[in-house]
Specification:
The chain has 347 residues and is of the alpha+beta class. It has ten helices and eleven strands. The protein has a four-stranded antiparallel beta sheet. It starts with 9 loop residues before the first helix and ends with a helix.
């Protein structure tokens, strides 16, 4: 998982894990930054976005990664450009079903889409508020959404436009041929079996030790090893990862604060079975029902999950506040909290 020996650069982590999930919520750092700071040597806040889009507009031929939604999921992720052909099937399927968020264009969106694509071709990257059409489109989006925004969003889901760069968190879209290398766009779409195999391998690369569906196992049979753990569902890993199972983390190592959607703990059932740690990301849980807190970070110490810290960054006061904490007796997360504060540039 690269937690014991961080990679030298971000591209190596993307290759190793297949993708890094992106989330805009910033309580004590954004999700992707919290995932990567433990895996990339000398990682700084915002490095993923700089890697994706450059500090200046990045030419398509120089891009090695891009932003898009995972197949059959609304989760936004950073992916190597080699993933593009394997997303085609899911993009096409989205154009065929009803969904206010990601499905086929409705009548008004269908009418506006050619204008948007023509303007992108003529003007280059822009955001939704740059489009002259100011009609509202509240269906499924709330009262403030514009027709331009919902249309752009669906065109992105369908792969007809891509995120060219960001201004803070504001998306600027452009045509795929100005975002991805021509050689990537020219690759043929893989067969359904090839795509299914890629998706299964992506799951294994992301979580390293994971359950697989019965239909997924034959697709990757030559590449996987079943791992039996008492009290756990059948788990599988890549054969290339088997040597890692013989390595033991130093139980006295400094604890790490994990991101709420860190690949190590993403599957709640596996996390509960392996570590007896029942963790839920509680951002969308009503306050009165939260157990650990709005943005609680699990604490990893050696081979144990030993509790959580619920921090909140006060950027104006330049302080990191701890809203709640709970740790197993004998463990201290103070060094990990100081490291998080240092990473965020806070006290």
């Amino acid at each position: 998982m690269l937690l014991d020996a961080p990679a030298a650069d971000l591209e190596s982590v993307l290759t190793h894990h297949g993708f890094i999930q992106i989330d805009p919520i910033n309580v004590c750092g954004r999700m992707h930054d919290l995932i990567l700071r433990n895996r990339v040597a000398d990682y700084r806040e915002g490095d993923l976005m700089r890697h994706l889009h450059g500090t200046q507009p990045l030419p398509a031929e120089e891009r090695t990664a891009f932003e898009h939604h995972l197949p059959h999921s609304n989760n936004l992720a950073a992916l190597p450009v080699s993933a593009w052909p394997f997303l085609q099937s899911a993009m096409r399927q989205r154009t065929e079903y009803e969904s206010a968020w990601s499905g086929k264009l409705d009548e008004r969106q269908t009418e506006l889409a050619p204008q948007i694509l023509a303007e992108l071709a003529a003007r280059g990257p822009f955001a939704s508020d740059s489009i002259a059409n100011k009609e509202r489109d509240a269906h499924g989006w709330g009262t403030h959404a514009t027709l331009a925004k919902t249309t752009l969003h669906k065109l992105f889901f369908h792969g007809r436009i891509l995120i060219s760069r960001r201004e803070n968190q504001r998306r600027l879209y452009d045509l795929p041929e100005r975002v991805l290398p021509a050689a990537i766009l020219a690759r043929p779409e893989p067969s359904p079996t090839e795509t299914a195999r890629w998706i299964t391998l992506l799951k294994l690369r992301q979580w390293r030790l994971t359950p697989l569906l019965r239909a997924e196992i034959p697709l990757v049979a030559d590449d996987i090893q079943e791992i039996a753990v008492d009290g756990c569902p059948p788990l599988f890993c890549l054969k290339s990862d088997l040597p890692l199972l013989d390595l033991a983390a130093d139980p006295s190592s400094i604890p790490l604060l994990l991101a709420p959607l860190d690949p190590l703990i993403y599957h709640r059932r596996v996390t509960r079975s392996l570590w007896d740690f029942d963790y839920t990301w509680e951002v969308y849980v009503p306050p009165e029902k939260r157990v650990r807190g709005y943005y609680a970070l699990p604490v990893l110490a050696g081979l144990e999950l030993v509790g959580h810290i619920d921090p909140k960054a006060d950027r104006k006061a330049k302080k990191l506040a701890i809203i709640h904490r709970s740790l197993r007796r004998g463990y201290s997360a103070a060094p990990a909290v100081r490291e998080l504060a240092r990473f965020l540039g806070l006290k």
